[in-house]
Amino acid sequence: MDNIEEICSICHQPVLTEFYFCPNCGNNLRERPKPISILTQIGLYILAIFLPPLGLWPGIKYLAKKGKQAKWVGSITIVLTLISSVIVTWSIFNLFNSYLSQLEGVLY
Ligand SMILES: [Zn+2]
């Protein structure tokens, strides 16, 4: 019974912390987390994929929010950011390597 942490302000019944409404009197206990629009999600994922370091901050912000959807969106954004960062780092490394070998070809 560790889930019962709150007391309804109207009827003083114990309520589960994950409830948005009091099951006893229907009192609105807290704001339901707003659903994240598809457009916002797509924007976040595009940001994460094309501008890797910038996706990390909104990702963490969403992960810290309440609600399953926000946590999912945050996790996906962070994962995409990490994958994209690895690809970008790898590409730069490869580019640098090929530049170095070209330089060696010129020097020697
Ligand atoms: Zn109540």
UniProtKB/TrEMBL annotation:
Q: Which stretches are transmembrane?
A: 38-60, 72-93
The alphabetical list of record keywords is: Membrane, Transmembrane, Transmembrane helix
Name of this chain's protein: Zinc ribbon domain-containing protein
According to its UniProt entry, this protein's organism is Candidatus Falkowbacteria bacterium HGW-Falkowbacteria-1
